[in-house]
Write a structure and sequence with these properties.
563 residues, 15 helices, 31 strands, 32% strand
Length: 563
């Protein structure tokens, strides 16, 4: 079992999931048509495990539990369905259609953006005059409009917070006219299996609002296609389609989830984001003013289902747990846990040999769900078997950054050009430029590093020579593209910002770059600086570096030279 921070499993599963917004690629003479956009509660305790037990204990008080045995099954089903869909009328005054103009960066030519495109999805309003939708509906947005049901008018909306890992976003509309007659939807609970729900939104096939019905099929951690993060999701059999993204899934008059993706190549297998994830996102924004992310222990663990493996590590017959294989050096667990520790329990919840924990009535989920529901800097009590002895450790949890970022939405790419050499940090969006089959078509070495390597220090990046803009000064170096840059003048580089400073502040006659495979690049520094200006003009490149690098250098110069 690989936990949530591991990217290898994430990227394989991501290929089979599709997001549910719609996109239109505008042509100069009109509309290019529609196509799917594919990318491959309160409780008596703060302990999430106790919350689920509380839900199970009170299951008899649900609509289904209140039916007497004398009623027929068909009558019971009819009443359940009627209760589940009772809030649809309210939803019609709450669900909006979202129109987005977005422009994604070109990671191969990082000073350029790709052509703008129009996309649309769904959203719904919650107390506080806020609109909830999916992050992928507004990713890389330049302009956002919303339209409420039954109105021909579109209103300007502003994105105030985005959580790409959980695929959620919050929008606001300044116009008071928009809010007239709107109803606010409340968040409910996690529905039980086979409970009826209704999905409301604006899917393909028409311009008006659409309502589809179905039941809950499964509840478990699932790969989120947009953010490549493993979080809890609810699988449903309602016919949700492209355009449903961001629309509410209702049970009665309560929201039990947000539609966000479906399973490519299947029929009526859709996924909704459950209430605990939605509340975690909203509460983080309310408490800190910005999206705070989802926490992780930073572990890669192996099941201990093999009896010989358990015996080797001194596990008694009554013990269950998982074996620690790797620990993220940036996590608090790195200084406390050790490789080959056995994780026995998380906050008192026993971990099974397959890495799962009890969840409601005879359901099970992976134990890293408990860490993902923690707030940043909260602690977890971890019981560990080490060298045959049980120990308990308190570990602080926080969101962890990967060495190679999985996504870079709403950000401009970072780059630096010197003597026609284009230096960029390695990111998965860069690898995605190699096409839908990027895992097989991108440079194998870079792909493996992107999926498997862990950072050793905060702020660390893998800097690569992405390509060479041909000129007399760099002739013969074009074959060195797509290699990682290791050193500048013998100094190991930490990230692209570090490389930029080393080159720009260089004072010697020549400058040397050391790359993978012991390859070396050497320039006469003064000649290379002159050639850089010529190359930029020839290729109509506006700047030698991205604005983040230039702005930082300017601010440092201002501090060094006070007025």
């Amino acid at each position: 079992m690989i936990l949530s921070w591991s990217a290898a499993t994430a990227r394989v599963r991501r290929l089979s999931l599709s997001l549910l917004s719609l996109s239109r690629l505008p042509l100069s003479d009109g509309d290019a048509g529609c196509c799917g956009r594919f990318l491959s509660s309160s409780s008596s305790s703060s302990n999430p495990y106790n919350y689920y037990l509380h839900r199970v204990a009170n299951a008899s008080n649900t609509t289904l539990g209140r039916f007497s045995t004398s009623r027929s099954l068909s009558s019971a089903a009819s009443e359940v369905e009627s209760a589940a869909y009772s809030g649809i009328e309210t939803a019609l005054d709450s669900v909006v259609k979202i129109f987005t103009v977005s422009s994604s960066p070109n990671y191969l030519l990082p000073w350029q953006n790709k052509p703008p495109r129009e996309t649309w999805g769904s959203g719904f309003v919650i107390p506080g005059k806020r609109i909830i939708t999916n992050a992928h509906v507004v990713a890389d947005h330049t302009f956002v409009l919303v339209r409420k049901h039954g109105s021909p008018t579109k209103y300007r909306a502003h994105v105030v917070s985005v959580g790409h890992e959980c695929d959620l976003a919050i929008l606001v509309v300044d116009s008071q006219e928009f809010w007239a007659g709107m109803s606010f939807l409340e968040l409910g609970d996690i529905p039980f299996l086979q409970e009826a729900i209704a999905v409301v939104g604006y899917p393909q096939g028409g311009d008006n609002i659409s309502i589809t019905k179905g039941v809950v099929s499964r509840v478990e951690p699932t790969q989120y296609a947009h953010g490549a993060t493993q979080l809890m999701a609810i699988q449903i059999d309602a016919a949700i389609n492209p355009g449903n993204s961001g629309g509410p899934a209702l049970m009665g008059d309560k929201v039990v989830g947000v539609a966000f993706q479906n399973l490519t190549g299947s029929e009526n297998i859709g996924y909704i984001i459950p209430v605990p994830v939605i509340k975690h996102f909203i509460s983080g924004v309310e408490e800190s003013g910005e999206y705070t992310g989802f926490c992780s222990l930073g572990l890669s663990c192996q099941p201990t289902e093999n009896s010989q493996l358990r015996n080797h590590f001194g596990m008694l017959p009554e013990m269950t747990g998982v074996l620690v294989n790797k620990i993220n050096p940036l996590s608090d667990a790195y200084r406390i846990l050790k490789k080959d520790d056995i994780i026995l329990a998380f906050d008192g919840v026993p971990v099974a040999n397959d890495g799962t924990i009890p969840f409601r009535n005879r359901e099970r989920i992976t134990f890293d769900h408990l860490s993902s529901m923690k707030k940043p800097n909260e602690t977890a009590l971890i019981r560990v078997l080490r060298d045959g002895k049980e120990n308990e450790f308190s570990i602080t949890l926080r969101p962890l950054q990967q060495l190679v970022p999985v996504h870079q939405f709403d950000k401009l790419p970072t780059y630096y050009i010197f003597a026609g050499l284009i230096f960029v940090p390695l990111t998965q969006p860069y690898l995605h430029e190699y096409g839908e089959d990027w895992y097989n078509t991108s440079p194998r070495r870079l792909c493996e590093r992107a999926l498997r390597e862990l950072p050793k220090n905060a702020g660390e990046q893998l800097v690569i020579l992405s390509q060479v803009l041909m000129d007399d000064i760099n002739a013969g170096y074009e074959r060195l593209a797509e290699l990682q840059v290791r050193k500048v003048n013998g100094i190991e580089i930490e990230n692209l910002r570090h490389l930029y400073r080393l080159v720009e502040h260089h004072s010697g006659e020549s400058i040397r770059f050391d790359l993978d495979d012991e390859r070396v690049i050497v320039f006469d520094y003064r000649t290379a600086k002159i050639a850089t200006s010529t190359i930029l003009k020839r290729h109509r490149i506006p700047s030698v570096a991205s604005t983040d690098l230039i702005d930082e250098q300017n601010s440092q110069e201002d501090l060094a030279c006070p007025v």
